[in-house]
Write a structure and sequence with these properties.
about 325 residues; alpha/beta; Rossmann fold; seven-stranded mixed β-sheet; 11 helices
């Protein structure tokens, strides 16, 4: 039996929930959970903001733990090995995306917290193909958010072959953005942080930004015209995207990793006349996650976290909703 915390309806408080996972499938592993990050996507699924939730919902897709049991077909992992589990807990394994290493784009990928019980629990199960070993040098209490927030901002650097001398700006310095600044700085980019909060300017510079710009000042945005090769938006709110597009150089890219549900209002001439691009991406494949973890270990990249005992999960959710968390929340299992 697995002991977890679950919401039984949209917006409900999480309560203790016990379920029988059944026999361990041949290609599956069972993980003893040590830590699990709390992500805004957990809140979105609990509240059914995306219309995809299946109740009861056991959140938690930034899992760090140790292998407790292996399915009979699993040979590349070992019992006791420290591993992580992110947004996906399984893939079809036979589509063209899986076949070319882009498992994160598999249309049949199994989300860890939608139609599957996640890591706010003492144990969690997942396909062995979705589980990634954690390299030496990473603090297990901090590494969980890298499996969602970290890979979300790292993946575009790989997918679009961002040059290390690129000028890149990050919109929104929060759970995603504060990691983006660190990765971009270590990548070699000239990094600018767009923020509407004066209190975050000094911290953005400490996290890796070389410059900060006040996103609420129209004159500042206007003065930044034709400045950036890449804009990474980490926010989940509607902004004046045409103003931001104008800050891109010709052939520049506005890339979305924040899950805004509002339609994009874009002036096509802003794209046509300078051959600019607009794109988005989800989390990365297991192979890209493994590369990201090695990169983070080499460059001492880690999220800023607030640690809560798993038993205080509802208090942690309230802290997340307040918007005051700096910058990620991690739950410690067994407490």
């Amino acid at each position: 039996m697995i002991n977890a915390y679950a919401a039984d309806s949209a917006g409900a408080e999480l309560k203790p929930f016990t379920y029988d996972p059944g026999p361990l499938a041949p290609d599956t592993v069972e993980i003893d959970v040590e830590y699990c990050g709390l992500c805004h996507s957990d809140l979105s699924v609990v509240d059914n903001e995306w219309g995809l939730s299946i109740y009861p919902v056991v959140p938690g897709h930034e899992v760090v733990g140790r292998i407790a049991a292996l399915g009979e077909q699993v040979s590349h992992l070992q019992v006791g090995q420290q591993v992580g589990l992110g947004w996906h807990s399984g893939y079809c394994g036979h589509c063209s995306e899986c076949g070319t290493g882009h498992h994160n784009l598999c249309v049949q990928a199994q989300p860890t917290i939608i139609g599957h019980h996640g890591g706010f629990a003492d144990k969690v199960r997942a396909s062995a193909a979705s589980v990634v070993p954690i390299p030496q040098g990473l603090d297990p209490s901090l590494v969980g958010p890298l499996f969602c927030a970290g890979i979300t901002v790292y993946n575009p650097l790989v997918q679009f072959s961002i040059a290390p001398n690129s000028r890149v700006a990050v919109i929104g310095i929060g759970g995603l953005g504060h990691l983006a600044l660190q990765f971009l700085n270590a990548w070699g980019c000239e990094v600018t942080a767009f923020t509407s909060s004066d209190s975050k300017c000094d911290e953005a510079l400490k996290l890796g930004a070389h410059h900060t710009l006040n996103s609420r000042d129209p004159e500042v945005l206007k003065a930044a015209a034709d400045s950036f090769d890449l804009l990474i938006s980490t926010v989940n709110v509607k902004l004046d995207w045409n103003t931001y597009l104008a800050t891109l150089k010709p052939r520049g890219r506005l890339h979305f990793v924040g899950a805004t549900t509002d339609p994009l209002d874009l002036n096509v001439f802003n794209l046509l006349m300078a051959q600019r691009q607009v794109s988005g991406s989800p989390v990365g494949s297991p192979a890209t996650i493994a590369d990201m973890l090695q990169f983070a270990a080499r460059h001492n990249i880690a999220p800023k976290v607030e640690l809560f005992p798993m038993s205080k999960v509802n208090e942690a959710f309230e802290r997340l909703k307040s918007g005051d968390a700096r910058y990620r929340i991690v739950l410690e299992a067994g407490k």
